[in-house]
Specification:
The complex is a heterodimer of chains A (137) and B (135).
Chain A lengths: L4 E5 L6 H17 L4 E2 L3 H5 L3 H9 L1 E6 L5 H8 L3 E7 H7 L13 H24 L5
Chain B lengths: L5 E5 L6 H17 L4 E4 L1 H5 L3 H9 L2 E5 L5 H9 L5 E4 H7 L13 H24 L2
Parallel strand pairs in B: 1-2, 1-3, 3-4
Classes of the chains: A alpha/beta (137), B alpha/beta (135).
Chain lengths: 137, 135
Amino acid sequence: MTDPIIVIPCSGIGKAFGTIARDATYSVVEDLKKGTTETICLSLLVMGDEEAGRLVKSHRCIAVDGCPNECSKKNLVLSGAKLAANFRVVDILRDHRDLKPSAVTFIDEAGRKLAKILADKISTRIDELDQEGRVSK
Amino acid sequence: MSTPKIGIVSCSGECCVEGTISRIATRIVLEKLRPSNTVTICLPLFSIGEKGERMFAKNFATIAVDGCEKQCAKNAIEKYSGKTARSIVVSDLLKKWKMENPSPRRELNKKGVEAAAKIAEEIAVAMDDIFTRGR
């Protein structure tokens, strides 16, 4: 595998948004873009793990955040990562107000639908990035 | 008298099923086992310096729940807010219980949920111990 894109969710634990960000990320790295994407532990990165730091500096990264705090994006920027794109669950929710996720521990049906929409958006963006062959910071 | 609170800090652990178990176990404690006494601290938010999360971890007892031996949650709390009262490492307990690799990381299967429930019990026991014996 050459130059995988690293997709990193916030995995926020207080709201359903973090669960959705996490599920969407797994959908991308395990299904939609399996083999061309990877994920790493955000907590490992923020604790200054050298290998994680090297990985995000040398590969394009996509931050997937649940809420406007944008913890994944901010931690990636702080780590000097090559940030190619970022997404927020709250933005997806704004466009799909009929979907109201409530479960945090185990994702519910609305959450699953939002995660699918988000995963498709991330996947489309990855296709664009591959076509563009450039990195936006 | 206000209800005593303890902060539970789970690692994000996207890489492995132990991270998912840490997260689910923490939520089980919050939602079912000790809802009145539990405050979850969002580790990514804590890491970017959110004052409320850091202040809580400074002033209240905390329990770190980590997926693996790297113990990111414990290290983060002890770096920025002081010593954790207790620390739980999921991979160590799963090994002890002979329950290694119980489930895919994305969505826990029955074995994974059972493992998370057992970890949640361990967290609740640690909380009770803190209330009884102190930090």
